[in-house]
Design goal:
Elements: E1 19-29, E2 32-43, E3 47-51, H1 58-66, E4 73-79, E5 82-85, H2 97-104, H3 106-120, H4 129-141, H5 147-157, H6 173-187, E6 191-195, H7 203-214, E7 219-223, H8 227-233, E8 236-239, E9 249-251, H9 256-292, H10 307-331, E10 364-371, E11 375-376, E12 381-384, E13 389-393, H11 400-408, E14 415-420, E15 426-429, H12 476-489, H13 509-512, H14 521-533, E16 539-543, H15 551-563, E17 567-571, H16 575-580, E18 586-588
Helix pairs in contact: 2-6, 3-4, 5-6, 9-10
Length: about 600
């Protein structure tokens, strides 16, 4: 079955009728099932948080609920108007802020025009009162009298550009996202589907979003890694992570801490059962092998036996082995492989002794950095000693990303000095992708986005760069190998300390064998994190590291950053991560 069409945007529905429901819905991409037999119903006033590992199908579920993706099985019903805010927004040529505003308020404008026409032409002696009532109800439902004020308020509170003539393609990713989020909030749709809405918001923007969602009269289905937002807003949670029985887990109103405890306990039992069953299966297979040894070409009955006795003995051994196989199959329990968990590498604190790092000196430092129009910190010194920590905070536009780019050497300084101790390796995770520069600002190609880039690491010569390029977009393995060769070429990689991507627990080998361009947004973010760790850096620069990641990985990454021997700088709006790192030195910008 295909999804039922959504009502026209702005069509009013009776109170309590607003809902979105999925019944036995399945969806998959060629060769890769994503959703299987999923059922859920979310009614007016409910706010469902959708969580799960990257690639588990969270964004796909929103697409299916919105009707932009059609399920391969099952049915989706929607009552009321639907608005979606996806993680990514492609700026169409010529589109402006005003384009998005006009699209969002089109239903309001239409309803207002129809009401004015109805009032202007209404015959007070024999007019159509039901038609007038419907026109009034529609404007009332959309709060049409307040639409322009709501739009201006949302743009302002989210820190989005308000110039209606400003082209979208001239804006940053975060600015475009905030414009679209403001438009969807001001639109007042009955069903609101949000995919990681806090990724590009500062503290003030998150507070405004939280207040809007808490009072939302319709349905909210929200994919988020923001643990505090789950606590503040959600009335229930749907976890799409794999479970031992294959069914998604649904949690009622609960705190994030209670959810994590219940999930961790279930994972612990799953891993224990998997380990026990794996050990038991190995023991039974070993016994089976020993039983069949008697049937090998070298097996012989006792010397002097006649041929009939030899045949009888062979049959007995075959039957005994067959019975053992039957017992093995009857006793076997099909326990699926538990999900991956982060295996953070043991990063070094200092370069090798011959690196020349002064004892007690900083590994990386910038003094009084200035980037015109983006950052100006006169008299400020930002230095990272071995094992150092720094938390960078501040509102959007205060220069956090620019400061990390200055530390990475990715932007030139109009004033100030940047120094890197000899032998220091730097790993950088930018807000959108990994930094394409070396430790001293050397440009590196973004191989994950280039078609046919890099050698296939499985091919002969991959380590030396002699392998032939692969056809089409590179796989994760190929792109990672290309990155390693680029770092090696500029002396930013010690081959003896290379971090293997398959051992990080960020992506499965199956995912790494796929083209990087086919990975989900969250999986690409995991790949970018792996690239930041590739060279076993002494310094990690992480800009909004929780963006697009699953909440389970955010918890694991936070613990790893606290424990690692590398120096770490984190710039983040994530309230829970800031609380978890509250004992770090903090640089507040803006």
């Amino acid at each position: 079955m295909t999804a039922t069409p959504a009502p026209e945007v702005g069509t009013p529905v009776a109170p309590g009728v607003v809902h979105v429901a999925a019944r036995d819905v399945s969806f998959g991409y060629p060769g890769r099932p994503v959703l299987r037999g999923l059922s859920l119903t979310v009614g007016a006033g409910a706010r469902l948080g959708v969580v799960g590992e990257n690639g588990a199908g969270k964004s796909t579920l929103l697409g299916v609920l919105a009707g932009t993706l059609h399920p391969t099985a099952g049915q989706v019903d929607r009552a009321g108007s639907v608005a979606t805010v996806a993680q990514e927004l492609t700026a169409a040529g010529g589109a402006t802020v005003g384009t998005l505003v006009d699209e969002a308020l089109a239903a309001v404008r239409t309803a207002d025009a129809e009401l004015r026409h109805t009032l202007d032409t209404f015959d007070h002696d024999g007019g159509d009162l039901p038609a007038l009532s419907r026109a009034l109800a529609r404007v009332e439902h959309l709060a049409g009298w307040d639409a322009d004020r709501r739009m201006d308020e949302a743009l302002t509170r989210f820190g989005a550009p308000r110039d209606l003539d400003r082209p979208l393609d001239a804006m940053s990713v975060g600015e475009r996202y905030r414009v679209r989020l403001a438009c969807r909030i001001a639109q007042r749709s009955d069903v609101l589907l949000l995919d990681e809405p806090t990724n590009h918001l500062d503290a003030a923007g998150v507070a405004y979003l939280t207040a809007q969602l808490q009072g939302w009269p319709g349905v909210v289905v929200l994919v988020t890694h923001d643990r505090q937002l789950l606590d503040d807003v959600m009335t229930g949670m749907l976890d799409l992570d794999p479970t031992i029985d294959g069914r998604p887990a649904v949690y009622g109103a609960t705190t994030y801490a209670a959810y994590r405890f219940a999930k961790d306990q279930a994972l612990r039992r799953w891993r224990q059962r998997y380990a026990a069953e794996t050990k038991r299966r190995a023991q039974l297979l070993r016994r089976l092998d020993e039983s069949y040894e008697g049937l090998s070409d070298e097996w012989r009955p006792p010397k002097g036996s006649n041929k009939h006795r030899r045949a009888t003995g062979a049959r007995i051994h075959v039957k005994a082995a067959d019975r053992l196989v039957q017992r093995l199959e009857a006793a076997a329990v099909d326990v699926p492989t538990p999900p991956l968990s982060l295996s953070f590498p043991d990063l070094p604190a200092l370069p090798a002794p011959d690196g020349g790092t002064p004892t007690g000196g900083p590994l990386l430092e910038v003094r009084a950095p200035r980037v015109p129009g983006r950052l100006d910190l006169p008299g400020v010194r930002v230095g990272l000693p071995p094992c150092g920590r720094l938390l960078v905070t501040g509102p959007n536009g205060s220069g956090k990303s620019t400061l990390l780019a200055a530390l990475a050497g990715a932007v030139p300084l109009a004033r100030g000095v940047r120094t890197v101790a000899p032998g220091v390796r730097i790993g950088t995770l930018a807000q959108e992708g990994h930094a394409s520069v070396g430790p001293r600002g050397e440009p590196l190609p973004d191989v994950a986005q280039l078609p046919g880039a890099g050698p296939d690491p499985a091919a002969d010569g991959a380590a030396t760069g002699d392998a032939a390029p692969v056809d089409g977009p590179p796989t994760g393995f190929a792109a990672y190998a290309r990155r390693a060769l680029d770092l090696l070429a500029i002396g930013a990689l010690d081959p003896d300390q290379l971090v293997a991507v398959a051992g990080l627990g960020l992506l499965t080998e199956e995912d790494l064998d796929r083209p990087v361009t086919e990975l989900s947004v969250g999986q690409r973010r995991r790949f970018d994190l792996a690239c930041a760790l590739l060279a076993a850096p002494h310094v990690l620069l992480l800009d909004e590291p929780t963006n697009h990641l699953s909440i389970a990985l955010v918890d694991e990454l936070t613990a790893a950053l606290r424990a690692t021997s590398a120096a770490v700088v984190v710039a983040t709006h994530d309230r829970r991560m800031r609380a978890d790192l509250a004992d770090w030195p903090e640089l507040a910008l803006g």
